[in-house]
Amino acid sequence: MELEENFCENAEVFETEEMPPVDETEQLRAEAEQLRTEAESLRAELSAERKLSAELREFAALYPETAVEEIPDGVWDAVKGGIPLAAAFALHERRSMRERAAAEADRAQAWARSTGPLENGGGEMYYSPAEVRAMSAADVRQNYSAILASMKRWQNG
User: Fold this and answer.
1) DSSP per residue over 81-141, as a string?
2) How buried is 106 (Cβ within 10 angstroms: 0-12 exposed, 13-18 middle, 19+ buried)?
3) CA proximity to 106, closest of 90, 127, 77
4) What is the Cα–Cα distance from 147 to 100, expressed in whole angstroms?
5) 50, 38 contact by CB (below 8 A)
6) Residue 20 — φ and ψ, nearest 5°?
7) Tell me: the pLDDT tens digits for 15-54?
8) 120: closest CA among 155, 153, 157?
9) What are the φ/ψ torsions at residue 124 (nearest 5 degrees)?
10) Which of 19, 49, 86, 151 is the one with CA 20 to 30 A from 143?
């Protein structure tokens, strides 16, 4: 008997409580799904930031003389493509060394055939576009005025 009374009381409470409308339930489900999607996106973003942070620490340990601001855009493009930063930079350095070596070989070969240095009127060396492209940033800074003078000759033929 007591069990029947409890059941009846519970049934009355259940009948008097308002159930949310179906539309509201669907809206809550949609909001929950949207929050779940946002959370997954934020987790992925955080994971990518942690990975980049670890790669930057590794880069700083391997290349302490190179500031992050000096990393060429091509290296960052490779990193966006999935190549680790240190590996992308090492590949860039290797390619630059090969280009410099090829330019130096060309320069040496041209020097051997030359009658002497070509001066740009003011006693400065002349650099071809290929030679400048093969230079490191430090070489460009060191020879900046001669490069600018050479560039005037590139434009004027």
Assistant:
1) TT--HHHHHHHHHHHHHHHHHHHHHHHHHHHHHSSS--B-SSSPBP--HHHHHHS-HHHHH
2) middle
3) 127
4) 16
5) no
6) -65, 145
7) 555 666 668 888 889 999 999 999 999 998 888 889 889 9
8) 153
9) -90, 150
10) 86
